[in-house]
Design goal:
Blueprint: E1 2-8, H1 12-22, E2 27-34, H2 41-54, E3 62-63, H3 79-85, H4 107-118, E4 122-126, H5 131-139, H6 143-146, E5 149-153, H7 169-173, H8 175-182, E6 188-191, H9 193-196, E7 200-201, H10 203-210, H11 215-234, E8 241-242, H12 244-253, E9 258-262, E10 265-267, E11 277-279, E12 291-297, H13 299-314
Helix pairs in contact: 1-12, 1-13, 4-5, 5-8, 10-11
The protein binds beta-D-ribofuranose and calcium ion (CA).
Length: 316
C-alpha cells in the first residue's frame, strides 16, 4: 500500500479526511502531523489522537507541528473557524480523550524521515496551513525530488476565496509557507475551492451514519451535522457542506477523480491580493510543470467513494 501522511488542523472536515484515509485499503496512514488553523495546535493534536482511537486505529502516530505561521510567533483561532468547526474543532461533540501522547519527534523531522524511508511511495496530504511542509523543505531541500507526491487542500484558481474574494483559509493562514511549497519544485496537486465546493454533503448522508447505531457512526453524524448547520448560515446557496479535506485524500488515493491543469503556481505574498493562488508568470513558459491544479471533479463518483468507505469504517 501507498504510505500516507495527513497534516491536519483537525476540524470537522479534517476528521472526515482521517476517516476517508482509514477506510481506504489502497493507503496506509503512517502518521498524522498536527498544525494550527481551525483550532490551536494542541487541540488539533488532541482531536487527532481521540478520533483515531474512536475509529479503532490507535496505531496511528500523531506528531506535533509548528504552532503558528512562518512569519508570526503566535496564533489565535478566528471567530469564523470556531463558528464552522465548533470551539473544540469537532462540532463541539464530546468524545473521550486518548490516553496516548503525541510522539516526541517533531512533525518536521518525521516528514523528512518518512521521505527518506519511503521515497516515491510516500504521499503527503496537508489540509491546513502549509507551515510544516515549508519548514521541512527548508531544512532538507532534497526531499522535493525524493517524495512521491503532495496533494494539498487549499487555494482557489477559477473561483473566489472563502476568506475574501481571493484568499482560501488554509493559504491565508500562512501565504509565505504556501508560496515556498508552490515554488519549491515539489510535485504538488492543488485541490482547492474550485473542486471542494462542488462536493457537498447533506443531512441525508449523515443519517446513514446515525442509523448504523455505532459509536463511530453517531460521532461522525453529530459532528458533521454541526458543520452542515454552520454552512446553512454562512453559505446557504450551497445546499450542503464542503468536503474540502476528504476530497484531497480522495485524490491522493485516486487521481482520476479530478481533471487537473498542469501549471507552475505561486502565492501572492505582497500587495492587495496577498494570499491569492495563481499561475507564476516568471515560470509560465517553463516546459516542466511541477504542480497541477484541480479544476473539475467527478462529483457522483467521489461522493459514492466517500460514503462507501466511511460507512464501512463506521460500521464497527
Ligand atoms: C479549509 O479550511 C479549513 O477550515 C478546512 O478544514 C479546510 O481545510 C477550507 O478552506
Ligand atoms: Ca483543514
Amino acid at each position: 500500500a501507498q504510505k500516507l501522511i495527513l497534516d491536519l488542523d483537525t476540524g470537522v472536515d479534517d476528521a472526515l479526511a482521517i476517516s476517508y484515509a482509514l477506510g481506504s485499503p489502497e493507503v496506509e496512514l503512517i502518521g498524522i502531523t498536527g498544525t494550527y488553523g481551525n483550532v490551536l495546535l494542541d487541540q488539533g493534536v488532541r482531536n487527532a489522537l481521540a478520533i483515531t482511537d474512536l475509529l479503532g486505529h490507535p496505531e496511528v502516530k500523531v506528531y506535533k507541528g509548528i504552532p503558528h505561521s512562518s512569519t508570526t510567533d503566535s496564533f489565535e483561532v478566528l471567530d469564523i473557524s470556531a463558528l464552522i468547526h465548533g470551539k473544540n474543532g469537532i462540532g463541539d461533540v464530546e468524545i473521550p480523550d486518548s490516553n496516548r501522547e503525541p510522539e516526541t519527534e517533531s512533525a518536521v523531522d518525521f516528514i523528512i524521515d518518512a521521505v527518506k524511508t519511503y521515497g516515491k511511495d510516500l504521499t503527503y496530504v496537508p489540509t491546513g496551513p502549509m507551515t510544516n511542509i515549508a519548514a521541512a523543505l527548508k531544512k532538507a531541500p532534497e526531499i522535493k525530488d525524493e517524495i512521491g507526491k503532495i496533494v494539498l487542500m487549499g487555494g482557489a484558481l477559477t473561483v473566489c476565496g472563502n476568506v475574501n474574494g481571493w484568499e482560501e483559509a488554509n493559504i491565508s493562514q500562512d501565504p509565505e509557507a504556501a508560496d515556498y511549497l508552490f515554488r519549491s519544485g515539489a510535485p504538488a496537486t492543488m485541490v482547492g475551492l474550485d473542486v471542494t465546493l462542488q462536493t457537498l454533503l447533506t443531512y441525508k448522508e449523515t443519517q446513514i451514519w446515525r442509523d448504523l447505531n455505532t459509536k463511530a457512526g453517531k460521532f461522525l453524524a453529530d459532528m458533521t451535522d454541526y458543520y452542515i448547520k454552520a454552512y446553512e448560515t454562512t453559505s446557504p446557496h450551497l445546499g450542503g457542506c464542503g468536503l474540502h479535506d476528504p476530497l484531497a485524500v480522495g485524490v491522493a488515493v485516486d487521481p482520476t477523480l479530478i481533471t487537473a491543469l498542469p501549471i507552475n503556481m505561486k502565492v501572492d505574498v505582497e500587495g492587495p491580493t496577498r494570499g491569492r493562488t495563481i499561475g507564476d508568470n516568471t515560470r509560465m513558459n517553463d516546459p516542466v510543470k511541477t504542480m497541477k491544479a484541480a479544476i473539475d471533479v467527478d462529483v457522483p463518483r467521489f461522493l459514492n467513494e466517500f460514503m462507501t468507505r466511511i460507512t464501512a469504517l463506521a460500521k464497527n
